[in-house]
Amino acid sequence: MPIKQRLVEDDRDELTEDVDDLDAAYIQTLKDLGVDRDLLEQFRDLTLENKTED
C-alpha cells in the first residue's frame, strides 16, 4: 500500500481549484453528501483566507 496517494482527481471544479488536496477532498465529500453549494463556497473562502494568513 502506498504511503501517499492522490486525494483528488486532476479535474477540479471552481470550488476546489485553489484549495489544497486535503481540503478539495473534503469539499468533494461534502458535495457528494448533498451539502448546500453556498455552504461549500463559504468553507472554500474560509480555507483560502486562512491559508493567506499563515
Write structural notes for this entry.
Helix content is 54%, strand content 0%. The chain has 54 residues and is mainly α. Helix 1 runs antiparallel to helix 2 (37-53). The radius of gyration is 12 Å and the shape is globular.
**Annotation field: number of helices:** 2
Shape: globular
Rounded to an integer in angstroms, the radius of gyration calculated over CA atoms is 12 Å
Helix content: 40-55%
Number of strands: 0
Oligomer: single chain
* Proportion of residues in extended strands: under 5%
Poorly predicted runs are none
Helix and strand succession?
Answer: HH
Distance between the termini: 33 Å
Structural class: mainly alpha
**Biggest beta sheet summary:** none
Mean pLDDT across all amino acids: 83
Summarize the structure.
This protein has 54 residues and is mainly α. Helices cover 54% and strands 0% of the residues.
